[in-house]
Design brief:
Layout lengths: L2 H7 L6 H14 L4 H11 L4 H14 L5 H4 L8 H14 L4 H8 L4 H16 L11 H4 L2 H13 L2 H21 L3 H14 L5 H9 L5 H14 L8 H11 L4 H11 L6 H6 L9 H13 L3 H13 L2 H10 L7 H10 L3 H11 L8 H17 L4 H11 L1 H17 L3 H12 L6 H19 L8 H11 L4 H7 L5 H13 L3 H14 L3 H13 L3
Helix pairs in contact: 1-3, 2-4, 2-12, 3-4, 4-6, 6-8, 7-8, 11-12, 12-14, 13-14, 14-16, 15-16, 16-18, 18-20, 19-20, 19-21, 19-22, 20-22, 21-22, 21-23, 22-24, 23-24, 24-25, 25-26, 26-27, 27-28, 29-31, 30-31, 30-32, 31-32
Length: about 525
């Protein structure tokens, strides 16, 4: 006995719902054979309109010529839905009904003649198209039919609904084993969704994950899962995995359905980790939906996944995650740890930006870790140091300034000029930097420029600009330069010459210091000559 024979046998079942379901499935799978047609015609002769309609719709999918005579009288049925179904079935049979209709019109009453005339017009318009209704159109292409079936299922009592579930699952199991009628499988899956029963979730999950099923069947299973999850059903990690797998599928419609279904679920911390792979999907739109879904979650675990996206994700994804983290509490520690581990300067800046509003959440130990990590990175010239120190400075500005100052002093003492300049550059960008810090930086820049060019100083040198700014602020630049052991007499002369050329008192002061130290040396004479030319004797 074949699977189709088993379904045909259900057409004679005492239960109305089983006979209706059998008719739907036979039409959906396009079952052939005289036994199928005879069984459906048996339902057409029923006095239950719902059975008649389902049987007529199934016959419309099959289009058997022998069905025309018993269907023809139904075009004037009192039930409008039966009349419409009868007309659809007759039109589907094709032009072979024309002689039969003309013969009946001779003895028909006016109302029936009008119905038969309309039927003839439709049949002629569809000349050559005898199988227009697609397979499984009953559920997939006719929204009104799908709505009617859903209402019928909803109206059933608990015992009937349990029977529907058991029978549909048995049918699905048999059909998937045969593997010949994906349309029937999709229709049965839709019915499982109509049941809105969490007990259907395992079967639906099985269909959603089935790689041997067409994307359309898997898509129907995912849609049905939305109905099955209504009420008290809690999404499991198994469900999340199935949705993530479908969201990664090549078929975009299937992936979109999975993403939208996933977007309606509340995730635990463990489940949030399971969708992490979606945030790295090559298709940015899929990744964006996953990241935005994480941003809507209340569980702190989802925020930690967003931190991981900022830490390791592609730039656009990382920036989106930073934006979504703006409203998330209690992620400061995770961001601080990620920032301390960042080895890329751009990524460190993103993490520092996300951390900025949450610095108050950090413990003293984490703040100290940020400072020490930033200082170590800065001392070794590793990327990301400045972003780490910027974040640490916002948390403890005074402590960071003191430690930078001490590091620069050690580097200068060890004659590591470039390292000291880098450290002082970071320090001088902060409000906590003093004029003495700025002078130390200008002094190092002046000494390096002089060393690289054999004592020459250019007006464009940053050190001269920095010294001029310090002088305008009231800092005693002359005294500082005279006491600075890193500044040679030659450097002193060139700086004095530069400012004397611009008529600034600092230049006169420095040239006088060169004369006092240089005496009768060449530099001393050059300084004296410049003073004379400047009119300062």
């Amino acid at each position: 006995m074949t699977e189709v024979d088993k379904i045909v046998a259900l057409l004679a079942d005492p239960a109305t719902e089983r006979r209706a379901a059998a008719a739907i499935v036979l039409g959906a799978i396009g079952a052939k054979g005289s036994a199928v047609v005879d069984g459906l015609l048996g339902l057409v002769a029923s006095d239950e309109p719902v059975l008649v309609r389902h049987a007529l719709d199934a016959l419309a999918s099959l289009g058997p010529r022998k069905a025309a005579p018993p269907i023809l009288p139904l075009v004037i049925s009192r039930d409008p839905e039966v009349r419409q179904a009868a007309e659809r079935a007759l039109v589907a049979i094709g032009e072979s009904i024309v002689p039969l209709v003309r013969e009946r019109m001779g003895a028909a009453a006016p109302d029936e003649q009008r119905a038969l005339s309309r039927l003839l017009r439709r049949a002629r318009r569809r000349r050559g198209v005898h199988r227009a209704p697609r397979r499984h159109a009953r559920l997939r292409g006719d929204p009104r039919a799908a709505l009617a079936i859903r209402q019928q299922v909803r109206a059933a009592d608990p015992a009937q609904r349990r029977k529907y579930l058991a029978e549909t699952e048995r049918f699905l199991k048999a059909q998937r084993k045969v593997g010949e009628h994906p349309g029937a499988v999709a229709a049965a899956v839709k019915v499982l969704g109509f049941l809105e029963d969490p007990k259907a979730i395992p079967t639906l999950l099985d269909c959603a994950r089935a790689a041997d099923q067409p994307p359309a069947v898997r898509q129907e299973a995912i849609i049905a899962l939305r109905f099955a999850l209504t009420g008290s059903a809690t999404p499991t990690s198994e469900l999340i995995d199935a949705l993530v797998a479908a969201a990664c599928a090549e078929d975009r419609a299937l992936a979109q359905t999975a993403l939208l279904t996933l977007g309606g679920l509340a995730l635990s911390a463990e489940q949030a980790l399971r969708i992490r792979k979606l945030t790295d999907h090559p298709d940015f739109d899929r990744a964006r939906l996953a990241i935005e879904h994480l941003g809507r979650q209340k569980d702190p675990g989802a925020a930690k996944v967003l931190v991981a996206v900022v830490e390791r994700g592609e730039r656009r994804r990382a920036e989106l995650a930073v934006t979504l983290l703006a409203g998330k509490p209690d992620v400061g520690a995770a961001l601080a740890k990620a920032l301390a581990a960042a080895t890329d300067a751009d990524r460190a800046k993103l993490l520092a930006r996300a951390l900025a509003p949450r610095l108050r959440e950090l413990t003293p130990a984490l703040r100290k870790q940020l400072r020490s990590t930033g200082l170590e990175r800065l001392a070794s010239g590793e990327p990301g140091a400045e972003a780490i120190l910027d974040a640490a400075r916002m948390a403890d500005p005074g402590a960071v300034a003191d430690e930078l100052r001490a590091l620069a002093a050690r580097q200068r003492k060890a004659n590591h000029t470039d390292d000291a300049l880098r450290t002082l550059g970071v320090l001088c960008r902060a409000d906590q930097a003093s004029d003495d810090d700025r002078y130390q930086r200008a002094s190092l820049e002046l000494a390096r420029a002089s060393r690289e060019r054999g004592g020459a100083v250019r007006p464009s040198d940053a050190a001269l600009s920095a010294l001029a700014q310090l002088a305008s602020r009231g800092f005693d630049v002359g005294a500082a330069l005279r006491k600075d052991k890193a500044i040679s007499l030659d450097d002193l002369y060139h700086v004095g010459f530069h400012f004397a050329e611009r008529g600034q008192p600092l230049g006169i002061e420095l040239l006088e210091a060169v004369i006092a130290k240089g005496g009768r040396t060449k530099l001393g004479k050059m300084a004296r000559n410049k003073l004379a030319l400047s009119g300062a004797d």
